[in-house]
């Protein structure tokens, strides 16, 4: 009775804390997203308007200014990353997918990621801010969970539950913030990150991502009144919605063939992208980045200069195009007014003329995407310009990926995809002249196909695209394109995140076990390694030597008591030892919170611990740190089943025990239906026969 | 090498078959949905136009015709159910949620459900067709999976994989068909049905539900050209979309309070609904339905007559309302033309008048919902009429639930919810007169709140509502309302499906383990029952006697071989014995397909088997039916962990073995990263250090 009451109170308490945390995580991520957006928009807007002003007098001076502003922004980003937060480089999604990565959820990583993203995206590199936003969401969730853990005096078991939830929810908030797509965010987390899932968690995740969407929306409303500089009209998802919603109303069966072609192109280019980035990253890792931070900085600077030269120089070689007949209804000005967003960038052209290459190249990426997606602008771009841009930007994206700056792949992927999508759309327009076709629709499908071919996401990508365009009619088309591009891509290699995780040695489990596992047993998977046991009370020096000689952190512990041997497990995942090296003298008995805490602090490695010889000779009682009932599998269990256990339960290690020759009992579902004491009526009801229906 | 090749071929083959099945399931479910919709719309349309014609001459004759048509339809439904397919009664969702229910996926259940739904929905009872559609999807998926299994000579292990997938996907297609909400359908399956999930499955499920949406859409387009009688304008989701999209554009902070009130009302009324239906169903089960089918038929007929009397009689007592000032832009006629759909039903009123109670009561439910949700019709309904309708319809829904006809709870829930939602909306309109408020928006929120308070679904309900209205702006509002209504409802009792499943003794595991499980071990949950072993070779008579004396179907099998004892498990879930009673002579050795097949055939129970004494003395070798590596847990494992194993892996039974005192080995995630032979380059890469990043 007493216990049940305590249980209910505890449950209520933990539920409230979890909801509050979900709320705070949502608000925090949304604010970070808004901050990054405002900063990038302002830096970029200021950069372009300054450049435009200067090129009225001198192209060369304009180019120099443009290049140096880019260089300065990128330099600030790479400096932050190399000096301050090395774990903040890259997109962060592969690292979060793997559970074991160190230092990925630190506060310094969060700060580095935010400011690094501003620099790298504002500096015009061929990368996006969406991947980093996902990582930022993860960091915020992790840090808030940590803060909560000490502040509210939560018990350690509760914290464990929460810890395992944490790195799931977070991602969602990032995606939701990046695209303002709450449902897509939830599905993204579901599809990309988690191998296990609980329905009550989904509801909280959904709540968090809706909070993000609401906060971002509110901030945007506030910015529209002009309080955030250039930001007001600069948020990707929102404008896109309005443009595309006035796009193509319906589609006909003849269009399915060119759409399938887009899918195939997406699969091929996506697989090629994954392969190229894999090789380049491998080369970089083994030859370039070993030489230290200076090389990394120089590399990024070279990439920045190349990007500036191409994006400024190429439009110069393009002849100007006369503006199309003005259409009063479309509301699109040509050329656009200086300092504004929109289609038809003037660049060096005269009055009533525009430069189509500059419209996509000499522009922020959000703007370029909006222009590529735009409806009612048939023949805005020439095929030659689009092809030039495709080749150049693809190459830039490949060499930029893997440099030491925060780099998302969503926006570059959308850019590449929408470029060839629009190219295909142009051919379709000239081929089926009677139909009501918008090139913007094809650009959207192209974007979906490239992301599908590269990242191999499916459901979540569909839903994100639908949420971006706010139009359910395109769902079957997007799905068709994704089906094809994913199938084509899968024929060549794995998804971008999986390739990168593999490169970094992050152990990601694929969603399905390998075929040969069917004939293998658990024992075979263990290999021939010697099993290292710990006794319950152990010498510190033994712990250290064992940890040094093994590359995993979980060990079986056998305790010899009067009632026989008890098997349990100790996990040094979060901290190599239950003491903190910086505190000087080693407290042998530590309270549990401090042991559990270092999840997202520095992530102590064994080598950081320096103990006096006296300390080393002391004994430590592992009892408070033991997992008393670890998951075990019998040695003859099929490896496929073991694999599913890892995936479904999100395990790190599992103990293999000898097969049992005796059964103590059997648990069925009905044995688990324990009723609360007060529900005696219900128990009585339940005893009526099952099948007399 | 050879094995890897075979494995790849096999994988490719099974993938292709699965996709084809997904396609067929989608098409089948969509066609069933379209058939039911067309039939119901035509029956109901014909019924109402006939009645309207007759009441021009005599109200009494009109009432008699109305009542007898309803009675005939309902009678056909209950006759089909009681005589032909008893498992098709009710909504089917609680049965599908529980894995163990017998006879729920038969072909006769499918047929009974389709025709029973047409009768019960066409007959005007207070129930819906959405729940049955979910069940129909499940049946179609199950039957197609079966057909595939024998036709394509699939191996049994493959079939097993597919079997476990099957009853997940299906549901989705039903929801997708019911609401044309593919994303919501996927999330519904995720939230309501499955305790375990795999991401590649999600993609296929999504594909199936998109197929459903496309097929239904195509059929609707075909029907709009007038080829399906009344059907053309009668599909719920489609019209709703158009109406609501022109609804309220934005919302202000003052409106959050009345919206919260809607949430509270929804929680209270939903919990009350669950409690009332639980008691009534309990009473029915124990007293009424035990007396045989005749009582069931009489019961349904009485309910039908009461429904007819109330829905025809009450509007007669309501005075007519003059039509509002015509608004040319709204396009809503008042009164609507006879035989058409729309607001402002004339009933017995004169020209330029309408009867507001008849508009919601004397109408098909789809139409009534459309009228309740409709925007730009402020003051169409009087508060008195809405209140009358709410009380009456709520009572009707409670007594109708649990009768022996197919009965969904979605549509009645939406009706009840939108009624009080619109009531609250009316007060808000008169209170905040300046704001641009549409009563239809409040009706939508009310519907969400009642469904949330009764079914306790969250994410999927949100998404379904958003997909119905095709407007993402309402997402935060719907979420707020659902949060409140679910929390309020949870304070009183469990969700509708859980209550019903509990009543029928279906063992559903809640999403979270009970608190007291934390201190219990696996051994305690087994209770004191004696463990029954099977040897590998066993006498038939022993099998039968053991099966009769136990109420579960899984048993440990111990085989004494030279290398010691081997523990495995045999599961008589699908068929009590590996032979078929109807075949006359008992084939002791049966091939595997026939053993596995009876999943969705009649579902043989032990009592159906009649064996000769000779047969009983024969021995049977269980070897082909064994599960050689069953999941086991040590006796001292915490029950919380056991619970999670059941949930995450979707287990039926688990064996409890003595705790191990020795560890054979340890498997980490990296041990599971077995590379294909050709990927030697990748393996080499992987061996580079993890942390030199």
Structure description:
Two copies of one chain form a homodimer. The C terminus of chain A is likely disordered. In chain A, α1 packs parallel to α4 and α7 packs across α8. Chain A has 693 residues and is α/β, with parallel strands linked by helices. In chain A, strands 3-5-6-8 form a four-stranded mixed sheet, with no helix packed on it. A two-stranded antiparallel sheet of chain A has the order 1-2. A two-stranded antiparallel sheet of chain A has the order 4-7. Chain A starts with a helix and ends in a 7-residue tail after the last helix. Chain A folds into three domains: 233 residues, Orthogonal Bundle (Clc chloride channel); 212 residues, Clc chloride channel (Orthogonal Bundle); 136 residues, CBS-domain, CATH 3.10.580.10. The interface between A and B is large, with 137 and 136 residues.
